[in-house]
């Protein structure tokens, strides 16, 4: 293939174009060549998929497509590395006995000596090639490596792929992924199940031996129709929302009083003061890192005067939700703690952007409540969600949403949106609950809120070692003016240190 290559030596890959910010039509097709997967390649794949899928109006497929493309790339690198390992250990990869002996140690050795293998792959000119293209009906991907697959390998991999295409639920996948020696185990099975849940047929993934080249072909039809492979479990989970009580009447009365133009501070303070528990919680939240205004508030009337009625309305929403969920679900406390940190990061992001105080109060409230759907899902399906989170981290997926849909037929973001509908929350809170994992799907008028909540979660996850910074949506970073890779993480470290210092000082 005669391609004009541009070498990005520092990043460790070649591209068929000098600039990936070209108009998307000029990147059709686009070729990426590399010897091993690294953070720069991961970041490039993530950025390019954002561009292609937004253009093709299929951004909701990001998790599924990223998963299967990266899994295929990883398998291609492993296949090339396997040749080096067998040669170094004087094993004949075409000999069945040698093959079994070699595979017993290959995976462990490759993980242990990853950098040396990367250097050797470059030296002996083993490489992988990703091709991205599209037409009016499909998004097309091809992942190739320049090592011919032997019949024994092809047979094993095809058997695993064939089995993976038959899975209909998460239980079947977990029960049958012990042998992933050929790289077509759990990762590919989960990816294909995610695609199946999106309504994309099993034959969208094919492996072919083409002379000295081995290629995985992935075809994503753009007329896909989402389906639910776990419909019955979905019905049971949604039924939990019907069991939630209505929003506390005393809070509805106070919020109604706040919204009356002729209400006085004294009237509102008197109404709030009738509920001792509520008054205490308002003072506590008003003095928290997310809402604090620079000095400690001592009395309820001072709190209401200082923070303003608009902010009081948001505090009441937050406290009402907290009261209902903490009484019903044991997982709430942990989620509330994380959401409080997210709210503080959002506030600092908003201050960085110069957003108005009234907007910041809405943003903080949205951040506090954005994970209410996760409270339900963790409480109902804790073991499953824990397993999916672990897989997502190991596979470097952008989020667990695709896995949640495949396993349970519904995501915590969809549940969050339903709860917001039930309690008649504002659009600001609803969009944060629905789109904080898929920010590029949010409408432009909602992006300030959604992007801030998304980025706050990413800062927390990445600094906690639970997510890979390379998989972040770069459009979000550009929205907040972060230009260098490390700049947003440095911002995050500083803000989290501020939050911890505030918490320590206030206790």
Q: Can you give keywords for this protein?
A:
507 residues, alpha+beta, Hypothetical protein af1432, seven-stranded antiparallel sheet, 7 strands, HD family phosphohydrolase
Explain this structure:
With 507 residues, the chain is an alpha+beta fold. It has 22 helices and seven strands. It has a seven-stranded antiparallel sheet with strand order 1-2-3-4-5-7-6, covered by helices on one side. Helix 9 packs antiparallel against helix 13 and helix 14 (332-353) runs antiparallel to helix 15. The longest helix has 27 residues, at 62-88. The N and C termini lie far apart (66 Å). The relative contact order is 0.09. Residues 244-439 form the HDOD domain.
Detail the topology: elements first, then pairings.
Elements: E1 6-8, E2 13-15, E3 30-34, H1 39-55, H2 62-88, H3 96-112, H4 114-123, E4 128-134, E5 138-145, H5 151-166, H6 170-175, H7 186-197, E6 205-210, E7 213-221, H8 231-243, H9 249-258, H10 265-273, H11 276-286, H12 300-307, H13 309-328, H14 332-353, H15 357-369, H16 372-395, H17 401-408, H18 412-422, H19 427-435, H20 447-463, H21 474-479, H22 487-506
Antiparallel strand pairs: 1-2, 2-3, 3-4, 4-5, 5-7, 6-7
Helix pairs in contact: 1-2, 2-3, 2-7, 5-7, 7-17, 9-13, 10-12, 11-13, 13-15, 14-15, 14-20, 14-22, 15-19, 16-18, 18-19, 19-20, 20-22
